[in-house]
Amino acid sequence: MAQQPNRLQTFNQQQAEQDRYLLAAIVEHSNDAIISKTLDGVIVNWNGAAERIYGYQAGEAIGRSISILVPPEQRDEVEEILAKTRRGEHVDHYETDRVRKDGQLVHVSLSISPIKDLSGNIIGVSTIARDITAQKQAEAALRRAHDELEQRIRMRTREIVRRQQVAEGLRDILAILNSDRDLDEILDYIVERARALLQVDRCAIFHMGSARRKLTIKAACGSFGGALRDIVVNMGQDPVGRAVSSRQPVAISNWVGPPPEFIRLATQAVEAGLVPVPPR
Description:
The chain is α+β, with helices and mostly antiparallel strands.
């Protein structure tokens, strides 16, 4: 009868040994980094996933402070977490950054728990770290795509609204052209609508005389400050002359040459929203 307790004790020891081997195998082959450390943050265990995620071999990491993995600007974070575990608290799914051996940042989700002995005393800290770098990169790419889509939608919406405004403005202009109002009233209305459609501060309509040498003001609106006056056109030479003769816009910024008087007048005309149209 005395042998029965010994057999039971032996069985329990074997079972405990098997459990330890099983636990060690689970830890070693886990896809998550599993690290145990002292209450002061010194690494005492380091599994294969920790080697893959952080780049340190077990022999390089064990015996060193866990702070080797922490960016300099986040060093206070280590002491805060250790203080919580010393009080018996758990930290679950804490997302933060860590530094690999090669200096690259890795995004991780940490679950941190106190390690207790058989008497319930806290003797260390266990950390499980999951690499979420790919997840964070995918989230960032998704946010960028979302932002780009929103920007395109806003631009497209503005374009649609703008086209509607232009269409409405042109309908209004056609309506007044077909009305029985006098010419001055029609031109005043057109120049006001043109200023609104072009979204400029000032706008003017000039009339080209039969000699095609002078643009005479027929209607104007906006803040000209009294500087607006008739423009003498040098056909095909200055920007205004080129615009009139070609019936195409001419950018003053593309004009190369000295700044004589016609350049100043041409600039004034372009700022006014002038679109010169020769008479038929």
